[in-house]
């Protein structure tokens, strides 16, 4: 028996290793393809929110930590910002005399980008400053053409992902592929945990392997885990939280969800199911009633908020030192809540198309992540026929939670996280974007793969579900009759 268990474990380990390697290859290839296109287009091709997060990470590295991105001294790049409009002819003349390449295609900020020997870059800034005041020198990849981009630190979102991007800039350098190394790695981690969750749910390695491949090759997965945005980290901690919940380690599941919120506040949506499961477990152990369950839910919900704010404060200490306590509270705490509950860019002529949360399951109004030179657009869009099927099957299969407890936890995570986006939509966040849905992607495919497996394996399951819905309908009818006619 021990030999059999050992053999089973080895096979699972081999499959997990294959999955990690495959995900690293797939996501690295996508990230490299985008990075190479970016270089060919001179840093003006990408349109997603990556431009804000990467710029914020660089600014945090330089302004908050006093460092700068790793660069070859012989190919040192920097964006030079001026107080007034740039004298382009003079800038090109000085750059030529110093053997520097120069780009002057900025329109929204007074800046040029120069690259060459490090000492020549600073000599260029010194000579230009004689007639035009230089207000900032930002080393690294050329800045996007956006106002105040050289001071932007993205205070409306927590800093952990930006710290990792900044660390990547220090270790590897400041270029598109290097920015994306952290999210490629976290993508591989997410893929691994999809496999582990499905294995925990079904104890069937073939199902777990095939379901994980569906997740990995979904266009949403390959796109979001190939660019440096925050939502991929949120997806990772959401599925890790589910894994702990399936292990009945509810406190750890809640803590993991809170840590996910340190990358982006939407990570806290995973705390909705984890709080409910923790409250239910405590109530069940004490043999309490509905009132005690509600009390425990409120208690652990408030405790989660206090713990999250405490963790956010700790990881934000360098930002707080830079911004000041009152500015941090107003912008990163209160301002963040206001930002998440408000409509952002709403002008269809200049804003990317937003979408409502339920439209993510239908493929409507998908966000354009990248426009390639040939006109092809990379959208943040999952394979919506499978997404829609997963959601519908999940709702139809609600009675399964009575006989498949772990599936009940899984469905609670899917519907709980989804409800988080609906709640903020109701509260005013009417300009959500389809790339937010990466948080749901692992849950969608875990749910779909498990239900297909369960319906295929279990006899008379259709009969059980139909009977359960009939019983629910009868009971609901009796309750309504009592309320209306009594």
Written description of the protein model:
The protein is of the alpha+beta class and 486 residues long. The protein is built from 18 helices and 6 strands. The protein has helices spanning 2-40, 50-64, 88-97, 118-131, 160-171, 176-202, 205-216, 219-224, 231-246, 250-260, 271-285, 290-315, 317-323, 325-340, 384-396, 405-426, 441-457, 461-485, and strands at 76-82, 101-103, 111-116, 134-139, 367-371, 377-380. The strands form 2 sheets. It has a 4-stranded antiparallel β-sheet with strand order 2-3-1-4, covered by helices on one side. A hairpin with a 5-residue loop joins β5 (367-371) and β6 (377-380). The longest helix has 39 residues, at 2-40. The chain is elongated, with a radius of gyration of 26 Å. The protein starts with a helix and ends with a helix. The mean pLDDT is 91.
In short:
The chain has 486 residues and is α+β, with helices and mostly antiparallel strands.
